[in-house]
Specification:
The chain has 479 residues and is α/β, with parallel strands linked by helices. The chain folds into 3 domains: 2-141, no CATH class; 147-247, 3-Layer(aba) Sandwich (Rossmann fold), CATH 3.40.50; 276-337 and 372-474, no CATH class. The protein contains 17 helices and 12 strands. It has helices at residues 2-43, 52-56, 60-71, 81-105, 114-141, 156-167, 202-208, 223-234, 276-311, 342-352, 354-363, 374-382, 389-394, 411-414, 418-421, 442-454, 458-474, and strands spanning 147-152, 173-179, 189-190, 193-197, 213-216, 239-242, 254-259, 264-269, 317-323, 329-335, 399-401, 427-429. It has a 6-stranded mixed beta sheet with strand order 3-4-2-1-5-6, sandwiched between helices. A two-stranded antiparallel sheet has the order 7-8. β1, α6 and β2 (173-179) form a beta-alpha-beta unit.
């Protein structure tokens, strides 16, 4: 009976996600049709314009879209948002290419507008992820897109997993609680979830709580202990995830190879930024996006510069020495957010206030910095003070996304990670900016920058850029 219930629930989940995708498809189709009928017809009046109902009657078009989404496994996998968006864009692009091929080779141009199909692809790239995000959140709320999870291990690894899954509700995992062999933790709460009992009691709690997914988050286990525990849990439930003791190792660009006879896995870890085609692709991406955004950025830079000049004397933009790729020093452009005698004031403050001195040497920043101007506070809260760095990108000194541009005096603080961080161009934004920004500790900031370099991909840059927009609009962790 339990198996039948699970099959029915999976079918309902599948049907609901298909409905979400169909709604997204027909909204995108309507916008594409409307643009062709009302906008493109002005410039191309001789081309035939079909009614929207005509396109709705072409049932095989959404079927092709759904087939590619199904092929990418997006109806049964619980992925983080940006991983799902990556696979979704691949499915949508392949579906659009297939449709274009069918229409062209089948000589169906008189029945299906290729302008509509092209517009459909461009619009779907933006709208499908939004519909899926909202749709999954709604399905999670009503209990359809939801899997109950028990975390094995209530230590630091278990806590971090819980925090991540709570943040990524889109994945559809509901954390029911923890199991741990530490008697002092049993009965207490970690991240608001109860530690029910010892690890050996997992069959009891799997049954009582209707658990179908377990996450083993005890990196300290030996290989034999982890193998035994995983095997025992796999006998009981369908899905088991393991957090290995590999934190800090670059795994985002990893291929898993199998040696079946030896029962071994080989992880082929690629350093993408060592590849010449990838370097070229990143540079083209930076220059192209910078040039495209210049018509918007240049007026904004001019207006902000004028406001700065009106509030206080001195240059609106200043050049500060920073560490660039290969450890070379370059002039990094920023809007001036402080009074002209900022350095003199800083020396005076550090000499007279021990608490501020400790904060400065821990973070190289002050939360309540008395040297910042009124306009400067706004620019820092919104990160608009970094807009002039677009000129550094155009000069090839910086990238849109990369490690933080560190000061020369921070070399000793960066320590062993200096060579890794300096193997990439510093960025206007980066992983640390979308992970709490100034609220994060200095050592954590360095680790994030090193992790970014080792795990670089163009998709990671795109995800960080979109996350930066959200962080800037909410003014999270900036000062």
């Amino acid at each position: 009976m339990t198996e039948v219930y699970k099959i029915i629930k999976d079918l309902i989940r599948f049907f609901c996600l298909v409905c979400v995708d169909l709604v997204a498809f027909y909204v995108c189709l309507f916008i594409a049709w409307f643009l062709r009928a009302e906008f493109f017809s002005i410039f191309l009046p001789d081309l035939p314009v079909f009614t929207y109902s005509h396109y709705v009657s072409l049932w095989w078009i959404p079927l092709i879209f759904l087939s590619f989404i199904f092929y990418e496994g997006l109806y049964d996998r619980n992925l983080p948002f940006w991983d799902e968006v990556r696979d979704l864009l691949k499915a949508l692009s392949l579906a659009s290419i297939t449709l274009m091929a069918i229409v062209t080779l089948g000589k169906m141009g008189g029945r299906v507008s290729r302008i509509v199909l092209s517009s459909l692809w461009i619009i779907s790239v933006f709208l499908f992820p939004i519909f899926r995000l909202w749709g999954k959140k709604f399905l999670y709320k009503i209990g359809i897109w939801k899997k109950k999870v028990l975390i094995i291990g209530a230590g630091n690894a278990g806590r971090l997993v819980a925090e991540g899954l709570e943040r990524e509700r889109h994945m559809g995992y509901e954390i029911m609680g923890f199991l741990d062999d530490d008697e002092q933790k049993i009965g207490k709460f970690v991240n608001g979830k109860r530690v029910f009992g010892n690890i050996s009691t997992f069959p009891k709690f799997f049954k009582e709580l209707s658990i179908n997914t377990a996450i083993i988050a005890i990196p300290s286990l030996s290989a034999s202990q982890l193998s035994l525990l995983t095997a025992n849990i796999q006998k009981t439930i369908s899905d088991t995830m393991v957090i290995p003791d590999l934190k800090g190792i670059a795994l985002l660009n990893t291929d898993l190879l199998h040696l079946f006879r030896e029962e071994l896995f080989l992880m082929n870890i690629r350093n993408n930024l060592k590849s010449l085609p990838n370097k070229l692709m990143k540079k083209i991406f930076d220059i192209t996006l910078s040039i495209v955004t210049l018509p918007v950025l240049l007026p904004a830079i001019g207006i902000i510069g004028l406001i700065i000049k009106l509030e206080s004397s001195g240059p609106a933009i200043y050049a500060h020495e920073r560490i660039g790729k290969g450890g070379k020093i370059f002039k990094c452009y920023k809007f001036r957010t402080m009074q002209r005698d900022a350095e003199e004031r800083l020396k005076e403050i550090l000499e007279t206030n021990q608490e501020i001195r400790n904060e400065w040497f821990n973070n190289w920043k002050l939360r309540d910095d008395p040297r910042i101007t009124k306009v400067g506070w706004f620019l820092r809260r919104t990160s608009l003070d970094e807009l002039p760095q677009i000129f550094n990108v155009l000069k090839g000194q910086m990238s849109l996304v990369g490690p933080r541009p560190y000061l020369p005096r921070e070399v000793e603080s960066i320590g062993d990670n200096l060579q890794i961080i300096c193997s990439a161009k510093p960025g206007i934004t980066g992983l640390w900016q979308v992970s709490g920004r100034s609220d994060t500790g200095y050592r954590y900031r360095i680790k994030l920058d090193a992790w970014y370099v080792m795990n670089w991909s163009l998709w990671l840059d795109i995800a960080i850029l979109f996350k930066t927009i959200k962080v800037v609009l909410k003014a999270e962790g900036a000062y």
